[in-house]
Amino acid sequence: MVIAMPLFPDSIAPASAQEQREKRRNLFDFLFGGALRDRQAEPPAKQRAPRQSRRATTSSRSGGSSSRAAATPQPPPEASVAKLDNARVVLVVGDFLAGGLSEGLEAAYAESPGVRVVNRSSGSSGFVRDDYYDWNAEIATILDETSPTLVVVMIGSNDRQQMVVDGKRETPRSDAWLQEYEKRVERFAGILEERGIPLIWTGLPAFKLSSMTSDMLAFNDIYKTSAEAAGGSFVDIWEGFVDENGAFVFSGPDMNGQPARLRGSDGINLTRAGKRKIAFYVEKPLNKLLGQAISPDIGELGMESLPDLVLHPEKAAPVDRTLPISLADPALDGGTELLGAVVRPTGEAQPDAETALPVDQAPRPGRADDFSASGFTRDRTGSVAREPVRDAPALR
Predict the structure, then answer these.
(1) Which ranges are annotated Low complexity under compositional bias (predicted)?
(2) Tens of pLDDT, residues 200-245
(3) Bridge-partner residues for 165, per DSSP?
(4) Considering the entire predicted model, what is its pTM?
(5) In what helix (H) or strand (E) does residue 27 lie, and over which residues does it extend?
């Protein structure tokens, strides 16, 4: 028997292969459902976006959130307290450290309408280079312009250089250099003394360079002597910027006792915490001079009600002390009764103070000064002595 074969076998094979693929697909559909087929048939345009697109989307989202945050209205900064027209003026003069001190004082008295801090410092100035800035020639004009209640000085960090004395250049801290430097400091303090303006001279801190620190100690001695000779006061801040061994430190306790960075990386400049700490040292003598002007409520009381600033009153007010008065004193007019003295009528003979025992000090039974039960007695002078020991009766 002859079986007829198809004339075109190739046309049938694809159909058989297609049927086989359809059977396999039906098997996958039976096992996994149509999800796998759908993912396999998903066009390339709908596949997962590349990483770069995701980054762009993320950045656009973050940009949108930041723009929304920027559009959110922020609360306005707190306005500083308006100063009174007749507020007491604290004039700060000196070099760049004085400028930092002025910032600290402005923060300290920000809530005091009766105190105004005026900064007239010159960063690169000192007493050596009077050809650059002559403080002894300029201070009078500054005083006329500002009419300060008191002056705070902090200067000397730029003075570690040669000074021309009688046409000759002298090295720092030589004998001739020190003599001329002291004269210039004394002249400056004397100008303030002649005008009757209180002076607070702030000492210099330690620095990173050891030789500079040594010079600052020598300068502080000159400032202290000159300021006190002119009737001013010297504020020593040295301990606030060194460790327990007296060595320079970058960080230390701030004005609240919390650890903080006090100096810049150069070991010279001050941070905000360092400026505020120096101002904290100066506040104590300042507050004594300013009195009620530092009160935040001074604007309601009125500056005209404040007493005048008096540094050294000529006559101190007498101190009225109340004497202790005994409750047993019928007159209640003095404290001698409580102190053990005896008040006798006028004309009555007074006992000898060295030998007589006051009446109210005579020992009474049961009183604290009765020593009869303990074997002690008090003589006429009030001294306590032991009585002679007597033989005790024999026990039976």
Answers:
(1) 55-72
(2) 999 999 999 999 999 999 999 999 999 999 999 999 999 999 999 9
(3) 168
(4) 0.60
(5) helix 9-32
